[in-house]
Amino acid sequence: MSEVSSTFEAARRAASDLRWSETYALLQQVDPDCLTPPELELLADAAWWCCRVEEEIGLRRQAFVGFDAAGDARRAAYAAWMLSVRFGLRGDPASSSGWLARARRQLQDEPECVEHGYVACSEVEAALGAGQLDAAEAYARRAIAIGRRERVAELVALAVTWQGLCRLVRDEVGDGLGLLDEAMAAVTGGELDAHFTGWIACFAIGMCMSVADLRRAGSWAQAAFDWSSSLPETTPYQGLCRVRQVEVMSLRGELEMAAAHAERSCEEMLAFEPNLAGEAFYVHGEILRRRGQLEAAERAFGRAAELGLDPQPGLARIRLSQGRGEAAAAALRAALTDHGRPTFQRAALLAACAEVAVAANDLSAARVSCGELDAVAAATGSEALLALAGSVRGRLHLAEGDASAALAVLTPAATIWRQLDMRFDLADTRRLVGLARRSLGDQEGAHRDLAAAQKAFEQLGAPHEAARTADELDEDPRPPGGLTRRECEVLALVAAGHTNRQVAAELVVSEHTVARHLSNIFVKLGVGSRTEAARFAFGHGLADSGQR
Are residues 467 and 412 in the same domain? Predict the structure, then answer.
């Protein structure tokens, strides 16, 4: 065996053991003119695993030219398809489309084969982008059939994942998630090669996040992170899997650990593929925001925007904390004009819109956002979105002065957050539960919930939220006459001579709501007329609190 042949054999053995740095180093020793198309392809694989993306693309181009010149249409088609995928991930749709067309052309005279299946997977993506759902699913079914006939597990799993996305786009969430379960069974069972294991895992986790299935996303993100961490050396998948893991950590409120991993994931993604790094910076920004590090969070959101990712709703929440509610509302309205956003992202925008509107006392706008969020949650059936919708609706009810209605939606939301182990959202919802109990006169229950929320925020590393909750604990819990704060507002306006219609307009509620508040006020104060109620207001210093 010649020295060159011995080097090639050693490189192939290293690659089979996922020792890609060694594979790369061995093939770099060989005169480039001695590299055949298969060896160029192996070197391209090694370059990718070593995070040398630009070099990988150049090598794969050379491999394509070599396969094409040798008349090996199938290998040329696979090389072209891989280039199409790589350019797609880089955000270069024109180059991606061009290489996909070259792959098709290579196969036009070939009998149906595995390469047709891989090209069909990319046709799914193109058809979905054009809104052709029936065509997209037909391509996915064709790819699955080819993969099963040829017994290629990687093709079957990839195609099943694409079919799952087709179902999710149709809002057939149960069917879509079932297909993702099928694909992930092959992933977690170790049935696929390393490249497809990482690819399909990241793909499936992203889809679960898009429909707010946080149970699956959390479980699969942990499995993917464990798998990537077990690889013998640094690879692109460690950065990709870390982004998903950090996102789940952030949602669960594991802020301290998430912050350390988030910073590393930003560095890894910038080194590997800047086009994908925007998501890492956005997640880092959300973690920093929750920890109260608003200036650092704003910088992270700005970096995400530079890399092409819309920094909403995170940046809007920072604007709200800066007292720039109008800027926050405008940014969120602009973000919502993009109707192509995944369900979870749109739901997060709607929740932020309602929060900003409540802060501005624009309860009419808040009701609109709540209504849209309720519809999204009902359509998906997602536990997380149902809890989010309940928490947001509860915030609105508190602003309307209807603590009973608030408690009715906040309590089940808190239960779901607890079941999902979403500790930050649980703490925030429990804070609102405490405020609702206080308004209903349950001072002991209010103190219990507010104290628990404060402790949780402290443990999660969210000092700003902990401080706000502590301030609410220190507030005087006993308005005169056992009235709620909203009832005090109504009484002050009545004492100022306002009619029910004027009170409703001032507080942006219905006249029916005002009448209900007045009825409760009369019962609590033991009075029978507006005049007697107004006298109580003047006697207890409430008469001026409604002046605007």
Answer: yes
**111-114: which pairs have CB atoms within 8 A and are 24 or more residues apart?**
112/146, 113/74, 113/146, 113/150, 114/74, 114/146, 114/147, 114/150, 114/152, 114/155
Cα angle 75, 77, 78; round to 5: 65
The answer to whether the predicted template modeling score (pTM) of the entire model surpasses 0.85 is no
Mean pLDDT calculated for residue range 23-47: 92
Q: Do 486 and 458 have their domain in common?
A: no
Give me the CATH number covering residue 528. 1.10.10.10
- Residue 74, C-beta contacts closer than 8 angstroms, at least 6 positions apart: 106, 107, 110, 113, 114, 115
Written in H, E and C, the secondary structure of 217-255 is HHHHHHHHHHHHHHCCCCCHHHHHHHHHHHHHHHHHCCH
Cβ atoms within 10 A of the Cβ of 289, count? 23
Q: Tokens standing for 386?
A: 């149902």
Q: For the segment 141-175, what is each residue's pLDDT rounded down to a tens digit?
A: 999 999 999 999 999 999 999 999 999 988 888 89
Percent of the chain having pLDDT more than 70?
98
Structural domain containing residue 292:
234-311
Strand segments (E) across 200-323: none
Q: Please choose, from the candidates 255, 444, 435, 464, the residue with its C-alpha nearest in 3D space to the C-alpha of residue 358.
A: 435
Span 65-77, average pLDDT: 97
Q: Which tens digit of pLDDT belongs to each residue from 477-509?
A: 566 777 877 788 889 899 999 999 998 888 877
Q: For residues 42 and 154, what is the distance between their CA atoms, to the nearest angstrom?
A: 18
Written as six digits, the tokens of 117 are 């299946």
Tell me whether residue 41 is in a domain: no
Confidence of residue 234 (pLDDT cuts 50, 70, 90): confident
Compute the distance between CA of residue 5 and CA of residue 123 in angstroms, rounded to an integer.
Answer: 38
Residues 391 and 511 in one domain: no
Residues 273 and 342 in one domain: no
Token pair belonging to 210: 């898009």
> If we measure between CA atoms, which residue out of 380, 400, 351 comes closest to residue 509?
400
Which tokens sit at 218? Answer: 């959390």
